[in-house]
Amino acid sequence: MNNRNLLFALTLTCILLAFGAWTLSFFHYGAPVRQTPASQVAAPMQAGPAEVQFNPPRPQDAPEDIREAVMLGYNIINDTAQYAGQHVGNELACATCHLEGGLSKGSITLVGAAATYPRFLSSHGYSADLAQKVQDCFARNLNAAPPALDSQTMQAVLAYLHWISKDIPVYAKLPWALPAKLDSNHKPDAASGASVYADNCAACHGDAGDGSPPLWGNGAYTDGSTM
Predict the structure, then answer these.
(1) Nearest-5° angle of CA 133, CA 54, CA 111?
(2) Is the pTM of this model over 0.85?
(3) Are 175 and 111 a contacting pair, CB within 8 Å?
(4) C-alpha to C-alpha distances, 32 to 19, 26, 28, 119, 226, nearest whole angstrom
(5) Which tens digit of pLDDT belongs to each residue from 175-204?
């Protein structure tokens, strides 16, 4: 009799334990999961794009397979009359605007130019690639027939422009680029301009603008020049 009661008690205990375990499992997995609203979820930190640095490589450091073309392009920019005389019709050179082969940050620099084309030219009403822009500069600023797209002169200039734009992402914002437009609120002041010219410009351009490089006449820019 005692054995029967003991067996009954053990069986009942096992049943109760199993029921208790099932009950805990039911309430654990059946309870609703509270979700954090999306508006309260912190967005992952995203670093903004790093500012492009003005650090053009030296022309002579170009890889051996393009160094000759890069150096020729550099020389064409600096002394256009000597290295591409057939494409110069005045007394100017590319370096008249683009000082030190376009490497000078204090002038209209060419560093990064290769990363900004094709570009829409509002003065022309169409988009131009880099080679077309180079041709445009020869025609409008140097007043001569531009080099052909497949010419050695053109290919050398393009090689040079691409090399000094090395590591600059395509269409990156260039902090050193000139503003597209002048301040519309600026009020011209001829007297102030004359003073600035006498102090800073006349030493090269001459008191009347007929120095070297000249600012007017057959040796200067054409009417269609960017300047």
Answers:
(1) 15
(2) no
(3) no
(4) 22, 12, 9, 57, 70
(5) 998 766 667 788 889 999 999 999 998 998
